[in-house]
Amino acid sequence: MSVMTRLDDKEDITQHEISALKTRFNLADAHTHQDQSVTQREIVNRLPELWYRAQGQSQYQSEQEFIQAFFTFHGQEHALKRHDEIYLVYAASIAMHITATYLRKRNMRVGLIEPCFDNLHDLLKHMEVPLTPLDETLLQSPTNVYAKLQSAAANVDAIFLVDPNNPTGTSMFAKGADTFVEVARYCKDHGKLLILDFCFAAFFKAAGGSRVDAYAILDDIGTQYIIMEDTGKTWPLQDTKCATIMASRAINPDIYSIVTSVLLNVSPFILNVVTQYIRDSSDDDFESVRSVLDVNRAVARRHLQGSFLNYLTPMVETSVAWFEILRDDVSADDLQAYLMAYEVYVLPGKYFYWSQPQAGQKYIRLALARKPEEFEQAVETIALALENYHG
């Protein structure tokens, strides 16, 4: 089948996402493609003003306004005590590349959560960092996570976790901070570097919750860490975004030297724009983001839950939906290729299971950050396609 051949030759999720941009219904990438809210449209109308404002203030002022707004919005005030050691980069993948460079320079072995978004694995693989999978189920209970890590992470130097996890929504913080505290304690006691990808952490707030101050916990325990955060999966910014990277004091000088070898600064105009979106969400309690995701998630469940697909309820609802394929005779690759004939592009689960791709053939991922009317058309099309599926 020509479609199947064309899809199977992709090496990673990003290559799929590039192809998906050409389809009518792109449910592949988790970037934000929904409309602007009323107040966000007002920000767009102010773009000339924000341009000249950025031009008229120092780079440092633009950076610090963004840092103060972002970390306050997320409830991570402890990090602001070292606000000059929060480094800004123009994409989360750059922060990950900086982290991978640090790991490679020190010949560190890494335990990487599985499943997870595949470019984490790919960046580390390309830097020739030795990897061991850590099943995300290790992190589901505070009562035995320490003991489980003693076994699973004994032979690694660093533990790399994503929270909430993409694509499953698994989180150490879903029921408070206890599990995270145990992970941090284990890393401190056993000399492990803890690397945290918090790029989906805004969805704690989108789900109506709040974030634990992770930086305060880590510094109180004395855990060595590198933490990455992002704006690109949260607001409808057309990829006008900024990511952050911060490290514990002991390793900060080493991280800083890698940061400065990569870039000088993020555009002050972009920082001004993104800061306005953060403040807007502070004012509306994240309603503009939350409402779109809630509507689309409900539509996906209503149209797709059935004998073919099963919606897997996450610990933390994010901007993606993770579905299990219930038919044993249909793989994720099969289903993706079939839906392409209906001009719908979804992601197969195999790329998230980086050490055992076959385990991911039971799952597909749908992106939710879309215009609700277009998203409903997409899932209605999927539902019709599934009714007509004959294998």
From TrEMBL:
EC number: 4.4.1.13
UniProtKB keywords: Aminotransferase, Lyase, Membrane, Pyridoxal phosphate, Transferase, Transmembrane, Transmembrane helix
Domain spans labelled Aminotransferase class I/classII large: 60-382
Names of the cofactor(s): pyridoxal 5'-phosphate
Domain of life: Bacteria
Residues spanning the membrane: 86-103
Pfam families: Aminotran_1_2 (PF00155)
SUPFAM superfamilies reported in the protein's UniProt record: PLP-dependent transferases (SSF53383)
InterPro entries in the cross-refs: Aminotransferase_I/II_large, Class-II_PLP-Dep_Aminotrans, PyrdxlP-dep_Trfase, PyrdxlP-dep_Trfase_major, PyrdxlP-dep_Trfase_small
Enzyme class: lyase
Record's keyword annotation contains Transmembrane: yes
GO MF term (any one): transaminase activity
Keyword Lyase on entry: yes
Family (UniProt): Belongs to the class-II pyridoxal-phosphate-dependent aminotransferase family. MalY/PatB cystathionine beta-lyase subfamily.
Protein name in UniProt: cysteine-S-conjugate beta-lyase
Organism (species): Pseudomonas marvdashtae
